[in-house]
Amino acid sequence: MTADAGTAPEPAVERWAVRIEYDGRPFVGWQRQITGLSVQQVLEEAAGRLAAGRPVTSITAGRTDAGVHATGQVAHLDFPMGTGLTGSKVRDALNFHMKPHPVAILQAMPVDSAWNARFSANRRFYRYRIVNRRGRLALDDGRVWLVKRALDIDAMNEAARHLLGRHDFTSFRASACQAKSPLRTLDRLAVMRHGEEITIEADARSFLHHQVRNMVGTLKLVGEGTWAPERVGEALRACDRRAAGPTAPPDGLYLTGVGYDPDPFSVAC
Amino acid sequence: MTADAGTAPEPAVERWAVRIEYDGRPFVGWQRQITGLSVQQVLEEAAGRLAAGRPVTSITAGRTDAGVHATGQVAHLDFPMGTGLTGSKVRDALNFHMKPHPVAILQAMPVDSAWNARFSANRRFYRYRIVNRRGRLALDDGRVWLVKRALDIDAMNEAARHLLGRHDFTSFRASACQAKSPLRTLDRLAVMRHGEEITIEADARSFLHHQVRNMVGTLKLVGEGTWAPERVGEALRACDRRAAGPTAPPDGLYLTGVGYDPDPFSVAC
């Protein structure tokens, strides 16, 4: 970041990558909206406090919907001037200014202006949490999907295998989805049970809008025995949103990580 | 429960065992207090609704402190008259009447009047959750202990071994503890790390007041390198509360289960 005396100008913008945790419950989603408070607004306003009130813009790896949580969201922030701060200072200052909103910076790293939280990302990791029991939720209301009918995870895993690989995922895509192509490559879709909690992990380079929640809502039909596992493959091939199951609620969905090569967060700070 | 015509009277009291989950944050603790709302009050008032407003009393296996959570607390409820309900109806009705408080009945089973949630219990299982990172908590504020200094779990496990077995636990007992004897047998104290989360599991027939939190607060001193592991054995042998470490906050503590032989909850309902 230092310039040869009198030759190169200071960069106009200082870019920082941040790794973020948030509770999605109080927010309208990642993206700024006039209807309510967004994670983006909380983050950008805190960053503005480090930039003497000048606006700081952010770009994120995954624009999560209202009520969706993150344990490993990634964004970059463009400060209009040098901050003169270390990574741990940026992390702590942003955390201070974001209180009391349930958003936390886990790591902040300076990055080159060519690095982009969205376009440099080559993998997204999601986890969906289901609590499978009759009793209502006391500890995790709004943070898991409570499914009262017993789910067969072997059948759900058999169904999940029909979705792995490169496909046209039109049947699992929100009608509002703005992606140009419905083609995506799903690398992992695994269903695990630990006692009464069922976890579904999904990894891909990128996902369509609502894709994870639509896959989960469909796998739930298989788990409760309403659908045979093969029907998930048929729904995929139909390329029609009406052929797949309902959208699972946002409550259980967590963006757990974003992959980069190289990973700006691999250096401890 | 049916009586031979005209011979045996109906039992005066109908006892139910319930397995309970709660978020300890809004409560003054398990036990009724004039200072605020307790889990016991929420439970007993809901039960009173099933008894036509007549008072229902409860006894619990573990009187958790303010801010302590449970995923597997057990209590029994004495109804002054027959409810005429099945286990799933009792569970669902109690859950309905406890809304919107974060208390949930997971299971309800009719038990004999000789069965007692406290005195029939032969094991208590606790889990303590630590998040070991620099960034503040967004998702689990009030539900874990945030420790910012890096913890060495191998050293913590070495220290924990000094506490296993039958000992005078005076050094790890709250001054307000009302137990007659400070002797307890600690059967398990294990420290595990999954990424940035550290879990400490403790099992014993019973614990003294604050014993788990005092053990955790002491193990944390070892984990951060302030104490050598051997010092925990010395603190134990001192039989003096001042010789051990501070009390860990209630936020990270969960009563995860209670053992009975036979277990009234082993039958699915």
Structure report:
The structure is a homodimer of 269-residue chains. The first copy, chain A, folds into two domains: 14-120, Alpha-Beta Plaits; 123-257, 2-Layer Sandwich (Alpha-Beta Plaits). Chain A has five helices and ten strands. Chain A has helices spanning 39-50, 87-98, 153-161, 211-223, 230-238, and strands spanning 14-22, 57-60, 69-79, 103-111, 123-132, 145-147, 165-168, 183-194, 197-204, 253-259. The relative contact order of chain A is 0.18. The model of chain A is unreliable at 1-5 (pLDDT under 50). The A-B interface holds A 20-23, 69, 71, 88, 91-92, 95, 99, 102-107, 133-139, 141, 143 and B 20-23, 69, 71, 88, 91-92, 95, 99, 102-107, 133-139, 141, 143.
Helix content of chain A: 10-25%
Molecular shape of chain A: globular
- The portion of residues forming beta strands of chain A comes to 25-35%
Greatest interface (CB-CB under 8 A), with counts per chain: A-B, 26 and 26 residues
Sequence stretches where pLDDT stays below 50 over 5 or more residues of chain A:
1-5
Kindly state the mean pLDDT of chain A as a whole number? Answer: 93
GO biological process, one term (chains A, B): tRNA pseudouridine synthesis
Subunit structure (chains A, B): Homodimer.
InterPro entries (chains A, B): PsdUridine_synth_cat_dom_sf (IPR020103), PsdUridine_synth_TruA (IPR001406), PsdUridine_synth_TruA_a/b_dom (IPR020097), PsdUridine_synth_TruA_C (IPR020095), TruA/RsuA/RluB/E/F_N (IPR020094)
Catalytic activity (chains A, B): uridine(38/39/40) in tRNA = pseudouridine(38/39/40) in tRNA
